[in-house]
Amino acid sequence: MTIVAVAGAAAERLVPILHDAEEDDERIRSALRDPSCQAYAALDGDEPVGAAVVRWDDREPSELLYIAVAADRRGTGLGRRIIAAILEELPGHGRELLVGTANCALDNIAFYQQCGFRMHSVKRDFFDYIQPPLREHGILMRDMIVFAYDTGDGSEQPV
């Protein structure tokens, strides 16, 4: 299993996997075309089995826009390996990486904290544009919880 930065056609191959992180494929493609973004592929041989997109910013906190793992590979530690590969690059782009998830995405909330991210802020009513509203775990999707990984605060756990 290797995790590599990809662009162009190789990044386009990641859209079906990233669709689990974002339902709007055009939003994914827009991020993949954005020169400030870098796509990463987790490859089993030549087959993509996981992916992430990061918007690197040397002046502001960088942001993990999307991360997803193929359904048959979830629970194997692959998501943590992708996060670890991204965090290895973080010092070259600043000291803080943000990621947001829905208030009802309990598995995601636990995952980011297990990877060393800490709660940063809440964007209230962020998901109001989704109609009809979605529910997960019986909880209405309303707010975005933003997590931060900060290389300078010394509180992160190893991924």
Please tell me about this protein's structure:
It is a single chain. With 159 residues, the chain is of the alpha+beta class. It has five helices and nine strands; from the N terminus they run βαααβββαβαββββ. The longest helix is centred in the middle third of the chain and has 12 residues, at 78-89. The mean pLDDT is 93. It has a seven-stranded mixed beta sheet. Strands 7-8 form a two-stranded antiparallel sheet. The chain starts with a strand and ends in a 9-residue tail after the last strand.
Poorly predicted ranges (pLDDT <50, ≥5 residues)? none
Oligomeric form of this entry? Answer: single chain
Rg from Cα: 15 Å
Q: Hey, roughly how much beta strand do the residues contain?
A: 25-35%
In DSSP terms (H or I, runs of 4 or more residues), the helix count works out at: 5
Average residue pLDDT: 93
Strand order of the largest sheet: 1-2-3-4-5-9-6
Per the principal axes of the C-alpha atoms, what is the gross shape? globular
Largest sheet: 7 strands, mixed
What's the helix-strand series? EHHHEEEHEHEEEE
Helix content: 10-25%
- The total strand number stands at 9
Distance between the termini: 17 Å
Alpha-beta content class: alpha+beta
